[in-house]
Amino acid sequence: MSKAPLRIAVAIAWLAALLNFFPLAWMLLASFKTEVQAIASPPLFFFLPTLDNYRGIFAQQDYASFALNSIVISLATTLLMLLLAVPAAFAMAFYPGAKTRDLLLWMLSTKMLPAVGVLVPIYLLARDLHLLDTLAALVIVNTLSNLPIAIWMLFTFFRETPKDIIEASRIDGANVLQTIFLVLLPLVLPGIASTSLLSIILCWNEAFWSLNLSAHNAAPLTAFIASFSAPQGLFWARLSAASVLAIAPILVFGWISQRQLVRGLTFGAVK
Amino acid sequence: MRHQAQGMKRAVAASLMLAGGLLLGSSFSATAATITIATVNNSQMVEMQKLSTQWEKETGNKINWVVLEENVLRQRVTTDIATHGGQFDILTIGSYETPIWGKQNWLVSLDGFPASYDMNDVFPSVREALSANGKLYAVPFYAESSFTYYRKDLFDKAGLTMPSQPKYDEVRTFAEKLTDRAHEQYGICLRGKPGWGENMAYLDTLVNTFGGRWFDENWKPQLNTPAWHEAVTFYIDMMHKYGPPGANSNGFNENQALFATGHCAMWIDATSGAGLLYDRKQSQVADKVAFTAAPIAKVPNGSHWFWSWALAIPESSKNVAVAKSFLQWSTSRAYIETVGKSDGWTVVPPGTRKSTYENPQYLKAAPFADFVKNAIMTADLNHPTAEKVPYTGIQYVAIPEFQAIGTTVGQMIAGALTGQMSVDDALREAQASVAATMQQAGYTQ
To answer: Which tens digit of pLDDT belongs to each residue from A129-178?
Structure first.
């Protein structure tokens, strides 16, 4: 690649990165402003920072309880999802039937349905099973919601694995579970890791079902953020502080695991 | 291989146990004395949350708070009530939903409160707004009307005098004289953000006072009429010439912020905005703000609105007695006095009780008190327009379909405000859309 196109590509990459980063940076700045400073026109870049918003949040809401719910929902969903998605993707990748591709497409098509379309049936099911405002309801719904994506991702990773290795392990006497857990999974660990990381991020950010199926006991951090939006009065600074607190754990988690995530997502992309 | 297989089995079993444990641990039921309250995040509700520990100590009961954004709360609570989910024992709802949900038998009737509650102290007009079929379905936490805020200093500097009952022609003249775009000072700030509770709340009062109405007595939509044309054209013209830029994204909060930071000479909106504008900590114009009645164009009917945030008990609640006890405590005269003593009299829940407006401490602390009371008392929900209508409600039509049609029409008028379509086109499309909805809902043939 000659220098000029390379520079343009780098410039575009920087621009995209800055565009992505700016709202987060602005939110972080706003969280240390007073409410009047947060809506000042022209916008303030230099000001005396205050921790009042954070103090107010901790006085008004039990952050730890919301955060714990988010952690439990994300981890339990990811675990349950992997238990279902790994065997499904294994069967589809190594023992495909005549309708496997149709099945994969159908599963993906369920993601095209707006969630609100099934709100009432799922709400009624949760009510009848006494699962309203429980973590179990959110874990089940999130698992079902993320399952198509997980199966697709794992299917893609599994297909990259030579079939001969699977056949060799079967000849050596391994049963299906042994083949999956002792032979296949170590080979596609980056793929499993990136699927898990994506699932955790999706669960952490999921708002629709969290707001609709939880009330108090199972409310995660997305409900925590929603509680700081006000119909009257100024609230941008405090809402920004609440958002910073809500995204901070997943941002740190994403930053630590970014190498793994990128490796997994580009697995098999270059041969 | 066998050792590895056993290890693998143990790992799978441990994973399943962990997942199961996480799920089981999450499902726990509430005790009988724990009630769940769904509410919005405004200053008065936050105050109620803070003070409710007193009620918890006095009664031994416990409260779980679910605080949500207004529209999310409305949708969330509607789903729960319509499906009898039973997630909430007390709801914060408005004067729009209360009679509609009351008629559907979704709410517990609140008649029969003890004499100590002094129901006669609650303004009759507020009680009426929260009733259906002669039964009270919610008790008011606070109530509001709309009026005109203006900058006394700017009026004095320009040699202008704001009348006690301004006319819209006068408002337009004032706006023209007080607009100074070079210094980001705008003559008038009005709601432009589309939504039945946003731009349409204000526009409904404007249409009312221009002599218009949403429906005739047979529920036929009346949007493509001269009164609507005149009102909407007046609004858009005034906003283009004397309003702030990007007005189509300004709702109550944005306009309040603009006024509080000194960018608006006039603002016509909810009386509940006064507390913040008079608060020196939050407002840069606290010593410069003044108020007067909402303007009138042609007729006085429906020129200022009525709204109340109230507390109700859904039929699906399993703790009705405890919930009633909390309602009696949180909307009582004693509660208002507690707030006044602990946090100052300017922030007590306004507009609900006669006794609040007889309290000399409140009258001294809130210069707008009598004006707000008068605006609330004269907002006539039953006669919102000059011509007869089959509905009640000033800045809304108290039918379930209004949320949808109000927001659709609000989007079309916002489109006209941004210049995407003409007023003629917006109202023609609005008329067709509302007519179709009303026909589908069975109001018209």
So the answer is: 999 999 999 999 999 999 999 999 999 989 888 888 888 888 888 888 88
Residues 228-247 of A with CB under 8 A from B: 228-235
**Contact residues for B240 (Cβ-Cβ < 8 A; gap 6+):** B417
My answer on whether B122 and B154 are in the same domain is no
B199 shares its domain with B281: yes
| Predicted pLDDT at A264 | 65
- Asked whether A225 and A239 are in contact (CB, 8 A), the reply is yes
How far is Cα B243 from Cα B107, in angstroms, rounded to an integer?
Answer: 42
A178 touches chain B (CB under 8 A): yes
- Any CB–CB contact under 8 A between A124 and chain B? yes
Distance in angstroms (rounded) separating the CA atoms of residues A37 and A58: 21
Output the domain CATH number for residue B57: 3.40.190.10
User: What is the distance between the alpha carbons of residues B381 and B215, in angstroms, rounded to a whole number?
Assistant: 15
Residues of A whose CB is below 8 A from B252: 231-232
The per-residue pLDDT for B24 is: 40
Q: Nearest-CA neighbor of A201 among A122, A116, A258, A267?
A: A258
A176 interaction partners in chain B (CB closer than 8 Å): none
Domain membership flag for residue A133: yes
pLDDT-derived band at A44 (thresholds 50, 70, 90) equals confident
Q: From CA B14, how far away is CA B1, in angstroms rounded?
A: 20
Full residue range of the structural domain in which residue A140 is found: 62-227
Last residue of a domain, one of B376, B403, B425: B376
Describe chain B by its helix, strand, coil percentages, rounded to 5: 50, 15, 35
Q: Provide the whole-model pTM.
A: 0.81
pLDDT by residue (tens digit) across B360-376?
Answer: 999 998 888 988 999 99
Torsion of CA B422, B426, B429, B432, to 10 degrees: -130
Q: Which residue stretches of chain A are H helix? A: 3-31, 35-38, 52-60, 63-94, 100-109, 119-128, 135-159, 163-171, 176-178, 185-187, 189-205, 208-213, 221-226, 236-256, 258-265
Of A32-41, A97-106, B411-420, minimum mean pLDDT range: A32-41
Q: What is the DSSP string of B182-235?
A: GGTBBS-B---S-STTTHHHHHHHHHHHTT--SB-TT--B--SSHHHHHHHHHH
Residue B297 lies in a domain: yes
**pLDDT score recorded for residue B17:** 45
Intervals of chain B under pLDDT 70? 1-32
* B203, B274: one domain: yes
Q: What are phi and psi of B344, to 5 degrees?
A: 105, 150
Cβ of residue A63 closer than 8 Å to a chain B Cβ: no
Query: HSE on the CB side for A265, CA within 13 Å?
Result: 10
Domain count of chain B? 2
Which string of DSSP letters, residue by residue, matches A12-33?
Answer: HHHHHHHHHHHHHHHHHHHHTS
CB-based contact A123 B36, cutoff 8 Å: no
* CATH code of A173's domain: 1.10.3720.10
**Are B8 and A178 an interchain contact pair (Cβ–Cβ within 8 Å)?**
yes
Residue B220 and residue B192 in one domain: yes
Residue of A232, A234, A239, A243 to mutate when probing chain B, most B C-beta within 10 A: A232
Read off the pLDDT of residues A208-261 as tens digits, 9 standing for 90 and up.
999 999 999 999 999 999 888 876 667 889 999 999 999 999 989 888 887 777
Cα–Cα distance, B59 to B326 (Å, whole number): 9
